[in-house]
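Quick check before the chapter quiz. The format below is the same one you will see on the exam, so make sure you can read both the input and the output lines.
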Amino acid sequence: MTEESRTLRPRFGLVLTVLVWCVCAAALVTIVVTGRWADLARYGVVAVLVGYVMWLLFWSPSVTIALSGVSVRNLLRVHEVSWPAIQSVDTKYALTLITPKGKVTAWAAPAPSRYASMRATKTDANGLPESTFMLGSIRPSDIPSSDSGLAALYVRRYWEELQGAGHLDSGVVEGTGVTTRWLGREAAALIALAIIAAVCVALVH
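Here is the expected output.
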């Protein structure tokens, strides 16, 4: 069993974020080159806000799988889930960890679209962990070519290895096994940018 952690992020989200950043940068460069300084004052902070929101939505979220547990970073919160607290793993809409405290859903591991699901083949299910087939069949969202399926693959593989090694035999869970904390700096930055953007637009008008 590997001791290295693995962090996963939505692949399409990274591409989308970079594209939006490029569009925002190109718009600002055009404003500067044409000397429209009033527009720069009006839309400069707005462009920064849009870029930050894209990062917050599609780049920052992640799922980290390590021997200590699974860390699910969503928009403004991080959920730390210990291995003994995981009762099952679902992928219907996104990677979802079922725990005694409830469900922890990963924004970074969404299920594939209907079009992507139609392209899945039986060979995509080869080599998946046994817990993938707990209900007798698997969903397209369990296929490793999807964000939800790839994250579920690593979670289930670690989970089964720990069970096989006897580390989860006691079934003891400290507290709920889930620790949640807010991302204060990210939330403060979002609020500050939104206020500054609103003020800049209002003053220019």
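If your answer matched, good. The CA atoms of residues 188 and 194 lie 10 Å apart.
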